[in-house]
Design a protein that fits this description.
Elements (H helix, E strand, L loop, with lengths): L1 H19 L4 E16 L9 E2 L1 E13 L4 E17 H9 L13 E21 L2 E23 L2 E9 L13 E4 L2 E12 L4 E10 L15 E14 L1
Parallel strand pairs: 7-8
Antiparallel strand pairs: 1-3, 1-11, 2-4, 3-4, 4-5, 5-6, 6-7, 6-9, 9-10, 10-11
């Protein structure tokens, strides 16, 4: 965790220093995510019963002009991802990974809320309109898992505990109330469209497709199945 926070602090300092010495537009953004996970089991079948779940994102972006119309936009965001698991297919697939857990059959559904620090690097095209700017963008992101929660709901009751990120099942916590979510590092592709108003406010629609397989290794062996984050969202922001 200390190494991650040092890396994040270094990124903030780098972006801020560069922005201070160039014609860079800095924006604060916040919004809502609707995230899900796509699971493929060891036999190549898609696991059913995963559903979109809401979460939040908040952070800053830096628009570096390449010319009049094109920009490169790195950023740093806190972002919530995850899924709502319903039905025996998804619940069994998730909870049977932990051989010590025996109560999953009684759950109505389980909500996974995974927390990431995310570094996107998007390439933007901005078009001048009569009132503001319309922009389109795409680019890669890398995200680092920092924690999260899971919530079991059954018989009108709720049980909330912690999620962790591990790269191998051998690293799983001995605390039975802490459940793994996936590998620590996620990566994928962003797609976005937005509008900048003359008063410096902006609104943006976001789409995200995870390309990295975050399914956990087993005793050093890569998994036969796969797990990937996907999501859509909406942001509002303000440029300084």
């Amino acid at each position: 965790m200390k190494t991650k926070m040092s890396f994040i602090a270094a990124l903030i300092l780098l972006f801020s220093y560069t922005a201070a010495n160039a014609q860079v537009e800095i924006a604060a953004r916040a919004g809502v995510n609707f995230s899900n996970i796509v699971w493929v089991d060891d036999n190549g079948g898609t696991v059913s019963g995963t559903n979109f779940t809401p979460g939040l994102h908040v952070g800053v972006t830096f628009d570096f002009p390449l010319n009049r119309d094109f920009y490169i936009q790195p950023g740093l965001l806190f972002s919530m991802k995850g899924s709502k698991l319903t039905g025996n297919d998804a619940l069994n697939y998730y909870w049977e990974a932990d051989e010590g857990y025996v109560d999953y059959m009684s759950a109505d559904y389980t909500s996974l809320n995974a927390y990431y620090m995310e570094v996107p690097v998007n390439f933007l095209y901005k078009s001048e309109m009569n009132y503001g700017k319309l922009y389109l963008g795409a680019g890669p992101y890398v995200a680092f898992g920092i924690g999260g929660t899971y919530n079991d709901y059954y018989d009108g009751k709720s049980l909330k505990n912690k999620l962790e990120f591990i790269n191998d099942w051998r690293d799983q916590s001995t605390d039975g109330d802490i459940m793994p979510y996936g590998k620590k590092v996620d990566a994928g592709l962003n797609l976005l469209v937005g509008y900048e108003f003359p008063n410096r406010f902006l609104v943006q629609l976001n789409g995200q497709v995870g390309l990295a397989n975050i399914e956990i290794n087993d005793a050093g062996q890569k998994p036969d199945g796969s797990m990937r984050n996907i999501g859509v969202g909406i942001s509002v922001g303000y440029k300084f």
